Amino acid sequence: MVSRERVTHPRGGPVAFYYGTDEIDRLAAFDRVVLQGEAYSEQDIASLVVRGVRPLCYLSLTEDTGPPAEWQRTQSNPDWGGHFVHVGHPGWSEHVLGKAGEMRRRGFRGFFLDTLNIELTFPDDLPHLLTLVAAIRESTYPDYLLANRGFGLLPQLAELVDGVLFESFTSRWVDDGYAPWPPDVLDVHARYAEMLLGLDVEVFALDYADTPRLAQYAQQRAARFGMPCFVSTRDLGTLPAA
């Protein structure tokens, strides 16, 4: 597997994650925004680009929410409902690369690579997943690639992407809302963050909160590790107040 030379992208404000619709003016306040590809028209995407925003399209690499297909496993994600896939299936690779090509034609300037944490559920698929990321890098170069976690793919993953997101770095979903991780988990996450900061990638945090106090705690803790932190709700349907 051969990595591509990384393009130098300007460092700026934190990336925003927004899975809602509209809000073009508010999204324009960010350097990069992660969006659901089908939620915005080509005109919307172009409007962001001309205002200096780099729109990144969400792309799941190990789960499929589409109709039944031969690459799908029988198991599905209990939280979001998508079927897990056989990552090495040629049809799945073709499907993902086709989606990436379609979104590039619509004007997206990069991709948010999600559902990379399969080291405990489907460890035999890790080499196939790394191959798929490399194929995305090859076909979309020099677009910006942001990986969500993917710690089981490191350090090779860092040679193929431009940034790594540490989702749920400080806080998590709980039955009655959101809460910080317990101290032992926070310590583990701190060690992972230190490892990420030693790699040649940009590093960001995404946390969840429903109170200003928890949001501030998450942002301050991420800042201690040099990570811009975006705070939202579980459905990523909110943006910070202007």
Tell me the overall shape: globular
At the first level of CATH, what is the class? Answer: Alpha Beta
Low-confidence stretches: 1-12
Helix and strand element order: EHEHEEEEHEHEEEEHEHE
Instruction: Find the count of extended strands (DSSP E, 2+ residues).
Output: 13
Keywords:
242 residues, TIM Barrel, 6 helices, 13 strands, globular
Folded structure, characterized:
With 242 residues, the protein is of the alpha/beta class. The chain has one domain (16-232): Aldolase class I (TIM Barrel), CATH 3.20.20.70. It contains six helices and 13 strands. The chain has helices at 24-27, 42-50, 90-105, 126-140, 183-197, 212-224; strands spanning 16-17, 32-35, 54-60, 63-64, 72-76, 83-85, 110-114, 144-148, 163-167, 171-174, 177-180, 202-208, 229-232. The protein has an eight-stranded parallel beta sheet with strand order 1-2-3-7-8-9-12-13. A three-stranded antiparallel beta sheet has the order 4-6-5, with no helix packed on it. Strand 1, helix 1 and strand 2 (32-35) form a beta-alpha-beta unit. Helix 3 runs parallel beside helix 4 (126-140). The longest helix has 16 residues, at 90-105. The protein is globular, with a radius of gyration of 17 Å. The termini are far apart. The relative contact order is 0.14.
Put the structure in a nutshell.
By secondary structure, the chain is α/β, with parallel strands linked by helices. It has helices spanning 24-27, 42-50, 90-105, 126-140, 183-197, 212-224, and strands spanning 16-17, 32-35, 54-60, 63-64, 72-76, 83-85, 110-114, 144-148, 163-167, 171-174, 177-180, 202-208, 229-232.
